[in-house]
Amino acid sequence: MTDLQDSKLTEFEDNDQKPVGFGRMLRKEDARLLRGRGRFVDDVQLPGMLHLAILRSPFAHATIVSIDTSAAEASPGVKAVVTGETLKGLGLAWMPTLSNDVQAVLATDKVRFQGQEVAFVVAEDRYQARDALELIDVEYDVLDPVIDVRKALEPDAPIIRTDLEGKTNNHVFDWETGDEEETARVFAEADVIVQEDIVYPRVHPAPMETCGSVADFDPVEGKLRLWSTTQAPHAHRTLYAIVAGIPEHKIQVIAPDIGGGFGNKVPIYPGYVHSIVGSIVTGKPVKWMEDRSENLISTGFARDYIMRAEIAATNDGKILAIRTNVLADHGAFNGTAAPVKYPAGFFGVFTGSYDLKAAHCKMTAVYTNKAPGGVAYACSFRITEAVYLVERIVDALAYQLEMDPAELRLKNFIQPEQFPYTTKTGWVYDSGDYEPTMRLAMEMAGYDELRREQAEKRARGELMGIGISFFTEAVGAGPRKNMDILGLGMADGCELRIHPTGKAVVRLSVKTQGQGHETTFAQIIAEELGIPPADIDVLHGDTDNTPFGLGTYGSRSTPVSGAAAALVARKVRDKAKLIASAMLEVSVADLDWVKGAFQVKGDPGRSVTIQDIAFRTHGAGDLPDGVEGGLEAQICYNPSNLTYPHGAYICVVDIDPGTAEVKVRRFIAVDDCGTRINPMIIEGQVHGGLADGVGMALMEMISFDSDGNCLGASLMDYLIPTALETPDWETGYTVTPSPHHPIGAKGIGESATVGSPPAIVNAVVDALKPFGVRHADMPLTPSRVWDAMRGQATPPI
Amino acid sequence: MQVPAPFEYERATSVDQAIGLLERLGGSARLVAGGHSLLPMMKLRLADFEYLIDINDLHGELGYIRLSDGEVRIGAMTRHRELLESDVLAEVFPIFRDAEKVIADPIVRNRGTLGGSLCQADPSEDLSAVCTTLDASCVIRGPGGAERVVTMEEFHVGPYETAVGDSEILTEIRIPRKLERAGSAYAKVERRAGDWAVVSAGAAVWLDRGRIVDARVGLAAVGPNTTGIPEISAALRGHEPSEELFQVAGAIAARSCDPVTDTRGSADYKRHLADELTRRTLRKAVERARS
Ligand SMILES: Cc1cc2nc3c(=O)[nH]c(=O)nc-3n(C[C@H](O)[C@H](O)[C@H](O)COP(=O)(O)OP(=O)(O)OC[C@H]3O[C@@H](n4cnc5c(N)ncnc54)[C@H](O)[C@@H]3O)c2cc1C
């Protein structure tokens, strides 16, 4: 019997051409994920497992006077109640952050943001643990909070980090890049200078799966197994070893299926440590799974930059220089995830895709009584902020010069022959060919036609806007000579083993959170060895079974680990060649590699496949002199540079003049991520990032009232876009391979999140041109757009 | 996962049995209809009740839309989805379908009820604005089968507060039908599909020989409760519909409401929307009445 469903499935499978190498194919992991067979942290059930709930501070800033846990301890099912004082006794009350600051595991002296961890309860079930929280009696002495970041450094501002010895203000760091004097000189000679204050408000990654862990400490073996929602299992293991003093080989970190990360799952959160302590204290496995509000109020946020941008140009639109002054809100603890020498991440790429004479940035970072972090949120280390800054100020310049924003960009692009191009802030762009990408986007959009339509509509009083952004990203951190996180170099390992029958297993140090590693990496190996992707198992996320490396964030998986995978496959191929030469009885020099087999030069009839060779390496009979049995290799890849994807985005919006509602009508995204491994996965990454951009541009923001109460504590208050706010994405591509990457791939994970917000904001501002609007800050909610229409645009913070 | 505090749960088998339970358990008990307002509050621990009395099995008894010449009666357990899909209702009062299209999302609409919406009395609640616009009255039943009928103005006591007592149930909404040509419409501005209103407005007009015999406007999210504005009705009655007239109505709406600034928008903007949406819905309602 063939029913409808069966025939549909077959049709689907037939359409999937299953390339042996690069090309469009269905994701290997989807069968599992779509059929509900994914296994996430919350699916982990261990015998005797207990549940943990965290008591959080209701205040943004308050001294803890006393904590009484007796009623909670007596509550049904409760096994342990732990406070900061308990942890202090164990030397675990504080832990290092990813930026060499410290963060409270549980507050001891005072609480520093609303939602901070104050105590935790371990009980037999989740309800009992939660109920017992209500019975913990904490007496707080409320202090004035620092909420307005602009006032954080005022002399009379309350001091947040009294835990840091000698700290007399809320200053975190000053940072500078570029040449201040030279920039000033170029500005002085410019015909036109445009300045705008640009705010990138605090947003939250809001992954569908919140953060959580299951800790299982075995007191007999002294071994800790930790299932956790982590994008970087190996880095986390090393840090646990350092913090908790458990020897590294006695810690196994397992990141099972992860329901979205976007940078939210890079840091080590106190909750993970709580579950470990809970398991050690009770001798039982302990699960902690935060709820939605906890995720939104306490885990790593992103952005929160207040930027003064200035651009200098000639009258005919040659951009000369850009300078910026940034005030960065880092929250109560500096938990930024960025390479140590880059406290502002890769913000230095704010010079964009343009050939400038000078650039300069000065930044001050401060503490406030808000959740800690400033972590990556699909932003490749602050590139989102940098790209937003440059693309917004370039548009403001176009407005001032009365020049078409596309033309202005085309006029200032770094030219193909200038690559590798060193920017005025010292970044070496590996490759790029910007104009074709821009022209393709304009062609797909029907740019000239759109401008004509806009002119007609304007004449009728209708509001239509066309926004452009052109971005260059710096991803794939990074060369270990200058990039490390807490002393760990940002290289990644890869191990490949070919089984006797020619099937393979590849082990990665990076970890998918939805990006499709199990498919992409199988395709990379397939491309190099000619083994079909279906025959290649991709293992990742378990520190006991995979090589060391720094994990998946900042679009680094393909640039770093992808290179490792290609190179490890080539190592295997080199060995296979020796064996093929013995099998075919010809010299190595007489062999040609045709994907999947070695054949004798000039005699295609004589060949051995990679599968034949694999069997031979494990089989009977001698191998050539000096060649060991087995077909496997391992590698640790240290990238020589970052890779620099680029893209051109065009957004078309319509605004209802009566209600100021913005409708994104069209969005054209042309990406150049170098070599394209699986175009379907690339498009998926782009679609997701674009939707994200709509959210940030139009509705998302974590805001606080003046007491420091978080106003985005649920998905009713913190809005993320739905299918109804997003148009049909129109995607296109160009290919400029990275010259230093073994397969020329550049990374795509964050391109769309980086590139789309400025395109959307530029479109809205363009639509508001009849009202004389040159800038308006995100989120462009109807109310804020209406303000802008009346010349009353205000910053969101 | 957000988990509520412990509570006891019972499924009601009839309206009177439910009232009996309420009478016995008093203020520590709550009815649960669709649960889409009550359960989130309990999970967030903003609300804590010892007993929940589930009235979903009363859908057979309280889920209906009945049309007669003089009025439309809608049972309190009628779900959003049923209101959305009812062609009969869309025929006489298209405002319902307009509103239901922009209330929440299909998952919420599958369960959420008319009664729950009104009893929740959220200031941004859309069906209250619809009922206010249509001059509906509410049938409340109490112990011993005692029934009383109150107007929407009487029903709303304050934000999240209604005239329904501890041991009472809202059973039915009654909407009068007038003889004249009727038209109605609803419009809402939201920051995102499925979000609560920044502001929404409903309008209904009744025309006789080209003139407005009656007109009503109901606004949501611009005051402590959804508000009907008698001054608008007075200004419109007896006139021929025109843009100038709608403008007058819009201006009255803007001046009569009492919005506050919050994350959804500034008070000024909301006032502006009260004006804009009043004009839009009146225009549409007139258009519908004429066709
Ligand atoms: C994501 C989301 C988005 C939403 N968006 C909107 C929106 O845009 N516009 C909008 O108007 N609403 C919106 N809502 C609310 C939704 O319409 C709710 O379903 C509705 O407000 C409550 O109806 P319910 O049947 O679920 O009531 P419940 O949650 O079951 O009950 C609500 C209250 O009413 C009481 N109650 C229920 N029935 C009766 C009765 N017959 N007699 C006496 N008391 C009763 C209960 O005891 C409780 O106090 C949204 C809800 C969600 C979850």
UniProtKB/TrEMBL annotation, chain A:
<dbReference type="GO" id="GO:0043885">
    <property type="term" value="F:anaerobic carbon-monoxide dehydrogenase activity"/>
</dbReference>
<keyword id="KW-0560">Oxidoreductase</keyword>
<dbReference type="InterPro" id="IPR046867">
    <property type="entry name" value="AldOxase/xan_DH_MoCoBD2"/>
</dbReference>
<dbReference type="GO" id="GO:0005507">
    <property type="term" value="F:copper ion binding"/>
</dbReference>
<dbReference type="Pfam" id="PF01315">
    <property type="entry name" value="Ald_Xan_dh_C"/>
</dbReference>
<dbReference type="InterPro" id="IPR008274">
    <property type="entry name" value="AldOxase/xan_DH_MoCoBD1"/>
</dbReference>
<dbReference type="InterPro" id="IPR000674">
    <property type="entry name" value="Ald_Oxase/Xan_DH_a/b"/>
</dbReference>
<dbReference type="GO" id="GO:0005506">
    <property type="term" value="F:iron ion binding"/>
</dbReference>
<dbReference type="InterPro" id="IPR037165">
    <property type="entry name" value="AldOxase/xan_DH_Mopterin-bd_sf"/>
</dbReference>
<feature type="domain" description="Aldehyde oxidase/xanthine dehydrogenase a/b hammerhead">
    <location>
        <begin position="35"/>
        <end position="144"/>
    </location>
</feature>
<dbReference type="GO" id="GO:0030151">
    <property type="term" value="F:molybdenum ion binding"/>
</dbReference>
<dbReference type="InterPro" id="IPR016208">
    <property type="entry name" value="Ald_Oxase/xanthine_DH-like"/>
</dbReference>
<dbReference type="InterPro" id="IPR012780">
    <property type="entry name" value="CO_Mo_DH_lsu"/>
</dbReference>
<dbReference type="Pfam" id="PF02738">
    <property type="entry name" value="MoCoBD_1"/>
</dbReference>
<dbReference type="Pfam" id="PF20256">
    <property type="entry name" value="MoCoBD_2"/>
</dbReference>
<protein>
    <submittedName>
        <fullName>Carbon monoxide dehydrogenase</fullName>
    </submittedName>
</protein>
<dbReference type="InterPro" id="IPR036856">
    <property type="entry name" value="Ald_Oxase/Xan_DH_a/b_sf"/>
</dbReference>
<keyword id="KW-0500">Molybdenum</keyword>
Automatic annotation (TrEMBL), chain B:
<dbReference type="GO" id="GO:0016491">
    <property type="term" value="F:oxidoreductase activity"/>
</dbReference>
<feature type="domain" description="FAD-binding PCMH-type">
    <location>
        <begin position="2"/>
        <end position="180"/>
    </location>
</feature>
<keyword id="KW-0285">Flavoprotein</keyword>
<keyword id="KW-0560">Oxidoreductase</keyword>
<keyword id="KW-0274">FAD</keyword>
<dbReference type="Pfam" id="PF00941">
    <property type="entry name" value="FAD_binding_5"/>
</dbReference>
<protein>
    <submittedName>
        <fullName>Carbon monoxide dehydrogenase</fullName>
    </submittedName>
</protein>
<dbReference type="InterPro" id="IPR002346">
    <property type="entry name" value="Mopterin_DH_FAD-bd"/>
</dbReference>
<dbReference type="InterPro" id="IPR016167">
    <property type="entry name" value="FAD-bd_PCMH_sub1"/>
</dbReference>
<dbReference type="InterPro" id="IPR016169">
    <property type="entry name" value="FAD-bd_PCMH_sub2"/>
</dbReference>
<dbReference type="InterPro" id="IPR036683">
    <property type="entry name" value="CO_DH_flav_C_dom_sf"/>
</dbReference>
<dbReference type="InterPro" id="IPR005107">
    <property type="entry name" value="CO_DH_flav_C"/>
</dbReference>
<dbReference type="Pfam" id="PF03450">
    <property type="entry name" value="CO_deh_flav_C"/>
</dbReference>
<dbReference type="InterPro" id="IPR016166">
    <property type="entry name" value="FAD-bd_PCMH"/>
</dbReference>
<dbReference type="GO" id="GO:0071949">
    <property type="term" value="F:FAD binding"/>
</dbReference>
<dbReference type="InterPro" id="IPR036318">
    <property type="entry name" value="FAD-bd_PCMH-like_sf"/>
</dbReference>
<dbReference type="InterPro" id="IPR051312">
    <property type="entry name" value="Diverse_Substr_Oxidored"/>
</dbReference>
